[in-house]
């Protein structure tokens, strides 16, 4: 009998972490090496224990985020395969993960591909990424009914910035920011900029980089 593939799970959400634990336990080819609530603990574990596959959430409440720690693991242990996972619909992390050498990326809430298939294909040497980012409902429309610039403004809006602050960040005029917000309100049916920001955060439509790496 061949040795089982050792899987390390890292997710700060108890329910998601439990799902990964149960899922791995059900598969004959795999065994759970450890289940951690912190991405930095995953880096330390990989340095001290044998691990073949890491399944790690991007967003973490405390400490460094999953993407940053996945980069460290790949740098220190390039033989370890990694699947980054997220429950949000943020699209920008896909390219960041590719550029970091992360083998695979899985959207928990939106992927049509079962996790088992992603795991098997990853361990068989494939790089498994979604063909496109999720397109969730956002008010009366869907995410990609908004333009790329509107989504950029929306990301900044989730940080509770003023129009002037958003304009400075995106190198556009405050008038242009105001127009984009008005257009998003008209499209989505939300009644205020606060509604836009709150719903974008709650639904995971966009996630600002500062919220991932917690620089502020």
Largest sheet: 5 strands, parallel
Average pLDDT, all residues = 95
Roughly how much helix do the residues carry, as a percent range?
40-55%
Euclidean distance between termini CA atoms = 51 Å
Radius of gyration, in angstroms, nearest whole number: 19 Å
Percentage of residues in strands: 5-15%
Segments where pLDDT lies below 50 for 5+ residues? none
- Count the beta strands: 7
The strands making up the biggest β-sheet line up spatially as: 2-1-3-4-5
Compact description:
The protein has 216 residues and is an alpha/beta fold. The chain has 10 helices and 7 strands.
Topology summary:
Layout lengths: L4 E6 L3 H12 L4 E7 L2 H10 L4 E5 L8 H11 L4 E6 L5 H8 L4 E4 L7 H9 L13 E2 L2 E2 L5 H10 L5 H8 L3 H15 L4 H11 L5 H5 L3
Parallel strand pairs: 1-2, 1-3, 3-4, 4-5
Antiparallel strand pairs: 6-7
